[in-house]
Each structure stands twice: as C-alpha cells, then as structure tokens.
Amino acid sequence: MVEVIQRGGEFLARKGVDSPRLQIELLLAHVLQVPRLKLYLNFERTITDAEMETLRGLLRRRGKREPLQHLLGSTSFCGLEILVNPQVLIPRPETELLGERARRFLDAFGGTPTPTVLDFGTGSGCLAILLAVQCPQARIHALDISEAALNVARQNAARHQVAERIEFHVSDGFAGLPAGLRFDLLVGNPPYVPSAEIETLQPEVRRHDPRLALDGGSDGLCFYRRLAVEAAPFVAPGGRAMLEFGAGQAEPIGKIFSNADWIVESVEEDYSHRPRILIARWRDK
Ligand SMILES: C[S@@+](CC[C@H](N)C(=O)[O-])C[C@H]1O[C@@H](n2cnc3c(N)ncnc32)[C@H](O)[C@@H]1O
Fold first, then answer.
1. Strand runs labelled E in the chain
2. 189 lines ligand 1 (CB under 6 A)
3. Which of 51, 90, 211, 246 is the 20 to 30 Å CA partner of 205?
4. What pLDDT is stored for residue 264 in this prediction?
5. Nearest alpha carbon to residue 183 among 125, 69, 245, 102
6. Is 264 helix (H, G, I), strand (E, B) or coil?
7. Which atom of ligand 1 is nearest to the CA of 127?
C-alpha cells in the first residue's frame, strides 16, 4: 500500500496536480471504501487486482486533470455531502463562509418569524440546502438558469431531507420567479470570472466546471449589475443581499450596489484576508 501511494503521488505530481499525496490517498481510500485516515492503520492490507485496476483508471483521469470531486462523485460543504457532476460548479471552501454568514443572519433575524431566502444561481444547491438544514424557520427558494444543475440540486435536497422545504425555479435572473415573492435574504455566488480569464484558470476549472457557472461577462461584473437592479421587486423591506465575489471586485461591486437602491453594510474577508462577501441592505423608500 505504501508503494502504491508513493508511486501514485509521483505520477500525479508529474502531471502537475496540486497536493498529489493527498489526492492519491483520497482516491485509494475511495476505491478501498475506507476513511482516508484509516489507510495508515491498514498498511498490510493487500490491494486486489480489481481494486488496482479501478485505482489506475481513476489515476489516469486525475492525471488528465479531471477534478477529484468528479471522480468521487461528491464533495463536502460545511460538513454536508453534496453530489456533483460536470453540470454544476464544485462548491468551494470560500462559499462555506457565505453559508455561515447567512445562517448567522437568519438565526438573529428579528423581523418575521419565517424569513424568506433566495439562493441565486444555486448550482449543486449547496447554499440553499445548508440553510434549509440549519435554519428550519426559513422558507427557501433557489433559482438557476440551468435545468441540469437544478436536477442535481433537487437530488441533493432529497438526500438531506429538505426537498419539501426548498422551492426550485428554473429562471434567467429573476424573470422566472412568481410575482409577489419577497425575500428577506438574497444569497448568491454568481458567475464572476471575466470571460477572457477563463482560459487562464487551472484545467480542472476551465475544462470541467460549467462555463455558465464561471462567466461573468467582459469585466466579471455582469451579474452584480443585474442583481442590484433586477432584485428590486423581490426584496422585502430591510432585506439583505449577501453575495460572494472574486479578487479585486469589492470596490466596483460596492459602487454598483450603492448606485442602485442598496446601502453597503460591510465587505467580509475570507481566511486569507481577501475581501469576499458583500453585505448590502435594501434602501426602503
Ligand atoms: C458560481 S455558480 C454557483 C453555484 C453554487 N451556488 C455554489 O456556490 O457552488 C453560478 C450559478 O449561476 C447559474 N447562472 C448562470 N447564469 C444565470 C442566469 N442568467 N440566471 C440564473 N442563474 C444563472 C449557473 O448555472 C451556476 O449554477
């Protein structure tokens, strides 16, 4: 087993894969169906020919830079197992911060006892599902333009027993939402990569995350412009927007929201102290 890990790690390193040792350990643990940390308690276990064949196939695919999460079929988001496939963005650790921030907001919410939430661009459903699981008082809506992504989100909701608590809408922006809905909280991680930068991203991202989930238009800000304006008829008095964004976007997004009818309350940082989340309050008129 030690030799398999050693050789597999070296193979992945040659292919330019980050953290090759961790990756081979995770793939081997997946094939042997044991938690990764248990690998080292089973050093003597022999690997059968069939297991070796499966591992080789996965290693070849990982070497071609298919994301680990696609090979495993799922990822962890705030401790929830979320199914992923090429139709949805693989949820990122930064987005866990947004989920945590939104949960704190809902827990402290002093308005109606049943706050209404919209997850804009739900993808795998990670944010909507997290909030449905952690905030049983909330009514959750989730939208995406991609029917294929919504199918994955629905499966994830069912897996976590919150399918009944989330209303999914196929919608381009807000256009497909029923009139009359009002949100106390709008969360979202919209596509924010400038179109021309997509080709510069890691192969795992540029070849395997859906382009629809990445492409934020020529300057990456197209969805923030749309959200700041198109959300207007759907925001409840005093409603909040909590939106993730990318490197260098804090200032222009702050301006976009201030120039529409929002008061920017704060910009929150990720663990590396990079600005990441815009929090804005709807200016009641
Ligand atoms: C960056 S992904 C976020 C997925 C998920 N919320 C997450 O954080 O992992 C953005 C999502 O927005 C969706 N999207 C792209 N254009 C859209 C549009 N015009 N209207 C609604 N959703 C859209 C994409 O399909 C994708 O699922």
1. 74-77, 80-83, 116-120, 139-144, 166-170, 183-188, 235-244, 262-269, 275-282
2. yes
3. 51
4. 97
5. 102
6. strand
7. 6
